[in-house]
Design brief:
498 residues; 7-stranded mixed sheet; alpha/beta
Amino acid sequence: MGKYIAAIDQGTTSTRCMIFDKSGSIISQDQKEHPQFYPRPGWVEHDAEIIWQDTKEIIRNATENAGISHTDISALGITNQRETTIIWDKTTGKPLHNAIVWQDTRTDKICNQLSKNGGQDRFRSLVGLPLATYFSGPKIKWLLENIPEIGSAAEKGTALFGTVDSWLIWNLTGGVNGGKHITDVTNASRTMLMNLETLQWEKDLLDILGIPASMLPEIRPSSDIYGHCKAILPDVPVCGNLGDQQAALFGQACFEEGEAKNTYGTGCFMLLNTGEKPVASENGLLTTLGYQINGMPAVYCLEGSIAITGALVQWLRDNLRMIDNTSDIEALAASVDDNGGIYIVPAFSGLFAPYWRNDARGVIVGLTRYINRGHIARAVLEATAYQTREVLDAMESDSDVRLKSLKVDGGMVFNDLLMQFQADILNVPVVRPKIAETTALGAAYAAGLAVGFWESFSELKENWNKDKEWQPEIEEEVRRSYYINWKKAVTRTFNWIE
């Protein structure tokens, strides 16, 4: 057996390959950004072919940087941006349209039409999700109805649908020459097409959405041997597959019921392990799969998804040009003592949890002549912390679990000002692990378990170590007044889109 595990972390803005040793330490990595396409307001697309080419390149670079060959690698795991929808032709191996990204809102009419009969929660009891533009099912329907080439390929039986994990696994394991068309339970649970209890595609839903079952991948556990790499990393088993947020939960070793993590990336995603039974949410959270190890029962989660957090910092950099680098925001925000009374609610593509409002759009409220760039930067960071608090409140209400501390990961956790404010507004300690790249680590763990590289959960838990902890510091009265103002600001985003 090789000494290392490789993981591909295919995200919204970039693709990364990381190579881990037995202790979970990173021995090598490579990363490449890919272009974002915005053909119309609210539309967001990726070129799936570019993502596949980038994936091959970064695997090659990461192994070369480490001075190792494919024989040193025991297994390959994959984690991916979820809900992003790709349809390709199995005879040519080519995508039939750009990938429609999770943030894309073009399916709002489809979702509104479907919710006329039974409301936004029409399918929630089956799939754990509300009708929203976020999920893959309506995206597939849109592509079938609007792209003639896809409609005819589906009729001929040559069209394959997959989220990014399926597209990469199919290509890695041979593509047109016998590539495996699979997904795992976590990614399948984000399509709005999988039954939460049976962990199989729900025929009634496929009929309602007009999606042929022949397009869909086989649903497998998150840790299982799916096939072996052909061209790149020849003969290395592909055997771990988790949606990015579930991979972070796994990488944070949240294996016990009641453990939670929050990932701070383009969006923010908080997951709470609820054990082997799905918990229905009364407060706008998603019921989703956490992970499934081959031969064991599936583990479920409650999830609070926030669409725009790190993306708001990028907006400040790219659209308003207030900062040159995203890391500059901390110094700018620290140049003032507080937000000066302004709140920014970044409902750029509607509001996700706990509101699920497609009609909302972003607002800046509380502006006065006193406000300067520092206050705006601070309000941008605080928006992430407030949105996380709303999700945590909903989780505690649904699960009756009182969170003792929050494990955090993702790019924004190196912003001390944000992490301190997060602890202040939540009133619980916030803990960053030594290895903050928990998404790729989770995919590596799932792959390693499948081939016996790691033997047990307890071995993975031993790898988890604390790097830094932030304790709440503000008075309860101050916390309450900040949060009341935030809630008031959120109401100003509603009903903007008719």
